[in-house]
Design a protein that fits this description.
It is a single chain. The chain has 117 residues and is mainly β. It is built from no helices and ten strands. A hairpin with a 5-residue loop joins strand 4 and strand 5.
Amino acid sequence: VQLTESGGDLVQPGGSLRLSCATFGFTFSNSAMTWVRQAPGKGLEWVCGIWSDGTTSYPDSMKGRFTISRDNLNDTVYLQMNNLNAEDTAVYYCSTGRTGLAPEDHWGQGTQVTVSS
């Protein structure tokens, strides 16, 4: 199983980024997928998830700014992030599963997002 995130960058406050997570080695269309982030000096924070039927889930703090989507033809999951602020600075990871915390879940290596002027 391989998950490879990309799209992280340095962006100004108020800007947007689109992260991608290309996957390989499992039946992507049957898998829930999740984005998790870790800010400097902080613990892991669940960002959002998308289930195999396309249903999406966000914590209240992410609603309206972040959008998760999936492309089952290309086995890729995306995270569109708008109106970014400094608190969004973190390493963003994609994982299989609804939380990324189950023993069977797999993670990518992460991509760095830095929001700064």
